[in-house]
Amino acid sequence: MDNKKNIDRLFQEKLKDFEVAPNDAVWNRISKSLPNKKKKRRVVALWWQVGGVAAAIALLLTVGSSLFNSDGIDPNKDLPIVNTDDKSKDKSEKENNTNQLPKDKQKDLNDSQLDNLEFVDSDRLNETIENTEGKDDKSVQEKTISNKLVSPNKSQLNSVANNTTESPKIVSPKTREDLISVKDDKTKVADNTDNSVGTQSSTDTKLANESEIKSQIKNSIKTNKTAVADNSKSNASENSDSKLSDSKIIDNISNDENALKEDPIKEAITEAIAENKDLINIDEKEEKKSRWSILPNVAPVYYSSLGKGSSIDQQFNDNSKSSDINMSYGVASSYKVSKKLKLRAGVNLVNLSQSTSEVFAFTGPTTGSSLTASSRTTAPPKYPNITFRNGAQEVSLMSAKTMTAASDFGNTGNLDQRLAFVEVPLELEYTLLDKKFGINFIGGFSTFFLSNNEIYADVDGTSTLIGEANNINGTSFSANVGLGLDYNLTKQWNINLEPQFKYQINTFNNTSGNFRPFFIGVYTGLSFKF
Amino acid sequence: MSLDRLIKNCIKQDAQAQSQLYKQFASKLFSLCLKYSKNYAEAEDNLHDAFITVFSKIEQYNSKGSFEGWLKRIAINTSLQRYREDVGVYDIVNEGNIEDVSVDIDDENVSIDFLLQIIQELPDRYRLVFNLYVLDGYSHVEISELISISTGTSKSNLARARLILKDKIEDNRANLNSQSL
C-alpha cells in the first residue's frame, strides 16, 4: 500500500496548486451566451448617453439661440451666401464689361481717359459727361458705356462693403481679424478692377488682370471660407447649432472647394444623428419593460407655519391659527431611470386654508371708529397685505389680543385665508425596499401657480368674503421630502401611501413675524405601470 | 468586492460581477477541466459549459458549503456529462477485474505538463476514475453513482489507470536517461 500511495501522492502533490489561465476567447464566448448580460449593461450606458446627448442638445440650442438672438440676426439668413453669389454675378458682369470695353476703347483712346475718371469719381464723371454731352454722337455712346461701367462696379463695391460689414455679425469675434484681411483682399480686388479698366492699354494685359482678379477673388473666398471653417472648428465642440449654420455657410461659399473640409463635419453630424437613432431605438426596446407608470393621487393636506407669525398682518402674529384639512388631487407620471431611481413629474390642484382665530371683524366706519375710541386711542389699523373687495372697504379687523377690553365685545370671529394652487412637482424617488411591499425615499421640488386667493371674515358662523391677500406671489416653490410606501396588487397596479412634507419658498412677499409656511400631505393613490 | 457581494450581483446578472467571478475562478476550474478532458479544446468547452451552468444556477447556491467546492462540482459534473453522452463510443468491454494493485514509482522528477499529458492520454473512463478518486477525493461508491458503473469497475479502472501512468512515467524516464547517456 505504501507504493500505491506513492504514485497517487506524486500526482496529488504535483497537481495540487496547478492552475492554468484559460484563453480569453473562452470568456468572450461565455459572456456572449449569458442571458440579459448585454441588455443590463447597456441600459445604464444608454441612459447616460441618451440623457447626455439630450442635455447637450438642449444646452446648445439654448446657448445657440440666445447668441443669435442677441445679435438680432436670423441664423437661417445666411447673409454672406447671398453676397458671394452677388459677387460671382458681379464678376461675370464685370467680365462682360471688360469685354465690352476694349472694343469701344480701341475705337477711341479718349474714352479710356474718361473711363479713368469714372472710376476715380463717379460724380465728376457725370459732370464730365455732361460737359462732353452734345459734342457728338460718340460722347453719348460713352455716357451709356460709362453708366454701364459705373453701376456694376458700384454694386460690386457695395457687395464687398456688405460682406465686410455683415459677415462679422455672423461669425464670432475670433474670425474678425481674418475677415479684415478678407476685406483688404477685396479692396485690392476692387483696386485691381479700377486699374485694369483704367489702364487698358491692350486686351492682353486686361485679360491678365482679369485672371489676377479672379484668382484674388478666389483667394478672398478661400480666406473667408477658412475663416468660417476655423470658426466652425473652434466652436464645433461646444456649439452644434453654429456648427450647423457654419457648415451651411461653408457649403454655400464653394461646394467644390469645400467638399473635403465639409465632409468630416457632415459625417460627424450624420454619425451623431445615426447614433442617436440607434440609441433611441434600443432604448425604446428597453422601455417595453414597463418603465413608465402613471399615478393618480389624492391627499389630505394640512397647512401650517414653522414659526409664529402671520401672512396677513402683524397684529395677528400671536393669534392662534388653525388649519382645516384640505384636499389635494392630481396625477403624476414616473419614469424608471434605473433599478433604484425613478423620476416623476405631475400636476396637482392644492387647496390650503388657514384660519386665524380671535379676530374681530366689523363692518362700517362707525363701528370701527367707536371700537378704536373705546379700546385705545390708536388709529384704525391698516392692512397693507389685504386688497379689499368692492363694498368691503369698511371692514375693520382687530386682533382680540391687542385689546384690553375684548370681553366687552362678545364672541370673536375668525379670519380665514383660503388659497388654491396648481402644483407641478418634480421629484426623484429612490427605492429603499423593492419587494411586494416597497419603501421609497422621495425628494424634489414643486412649482406653485396661484389659482385662488380669498380672505373671509368668519363671524358667528357666517363667513363673508372681504378680499384677497396681495402679498402672495403668483409663482412660488417648495422643497419636498417624503416617504413612499407601496404595495403591489398585481404586476401593474400598486397602492401608494406617501406622507410628504413641503416647505414653501417664496410664497409670500411680506410676512410679519416668523412666518414660514409648509404643508403636509398624505398622498394616497394607485399607480399603473405600462 | 467580497465574494458574497459578488455572488449576489451575479444573481442579479450584473455583467461586471460575472466577469469578476470568472476572473477569480477561471484558472482553478480550467486546470480541473484540463485534468478531466482528453485535450485542451475539450477542456475549454467544458470550462465554457461549466460557467454557463454556474451563472444560470448561481441563485441555487446556498452559502452553507464552500463556493469554490460548488464551482468545482459543477465543473466536474460538466466534464462527466460529456463522458455520459459519449459513453457508447468509449465503453470499454470485457475487462477483467483487477484488484487494487500497488504501484510504486521512484522517479518524482517529472514535470506537471507531462503528468497532465499522460492523464489526458488515459482512456476516458480511466481518466475520470483516476481524477475523481486520486485528485478530488471521491470514494468508489460515489464514483460508481456518478458515472453509472459498479464499484468493482471503478476500482479496476483505477488500478489500470495507475499502471498506465506508471508505465508512461517510466518510459519517459528511460527516454530521458538514454538521451542523457
Notable features of this structure?
heterodimer; A: 530 residues; alpha+beta; Porin; eight-stranded antiparallel barrel; two-stranded antiparallel ribbon; 29% strand; elongated; B: 181 residues; mainly alpha; Rna Polymerase Sigma Factor, Chain: A; Arc Repressor Mutant, subunit A; 2 domains
Average residue-wise pLDDT of chain B: 83
Shape of chain A: elongated
CATH homology superfamily of the largest domain in chain B: Winged helix-like DNA-binding domain superfamily/Winged helix DNA-binding domain
- Share in β-strands of chain B: under 5%
Task: Describe what this molecule looks like in 3D.
The complex is a heterodimer of chains A (530) and B (181). Chain A has an 8-stranded antiparallel β-barrel with strand order 1-4-5-8-9-11-12-14. A two-stranded antiparallel ribbon of chain A has the order 2-13. Chain A has 2 domains: 68-277, no CATH class; 292-529, Porin. Chain A is built from 12 helices and 14 strands. Helix content of chain A is 49%, strand content 29%. With 181 residues, chain B is mostly helical. Chain B folds into 2 domains: 3-85, Orthogonal Bundle (Rna Polymerase Sigma Factor, Chain: A); 93-180, Arc Repressor Mutant, subunit A (Orthogonal Bundle). Chain B is 72% helix and 0% strand. Chain B contains 9 helices and no strands. The longest helix of chain B is centred in the C-terminal third of the chain and has 30 residues, at 151-180. Chain B is globular, with a radius of gyration of 19 Å. Chain B starts with a helix and ends with a helix. Classes of the chains: A alpha+beta (530), B mainly alpha (181). The interface between A and B is large, with 32 and 41 residues.
Detail the topology: elements first, then pairings.
The complex is a heterodimer of chains A (530) and B (181).
Chain A (H helix, E strand, L loop, with lengths): L1 H14 L8 H10 L3 H35 L7 H29 L1 H12 L1 H11 L4 H34 L5 H24 L3 H34 L3 H14 L1 H33 L4 E14 L3 E2 L10 E2 L2 E12 L4 E22 L2 H11 L10 E3 L7 E4 L13 E22 L2 E23 L2 E8 L5 E14 L4 E13 L6 E2 L3 E13 L1
Antiparallel strand pairs in A: 1-4, 1-14, 2-13, 3-5, 4-5, 5-7, 5-8, 6-10, 8-9, 9-10, 9-11, 11-12, 12-14
Chain B lengths: L2 H9 L3 H22 L3 H18 L9 H19 L1 H4 L21 H10 L2 H12 L4 H7 L4 H30 L1
Helix pairs in contact in B: 1-2, 2-3, 2-4, 3-4, 7-9, 8-9
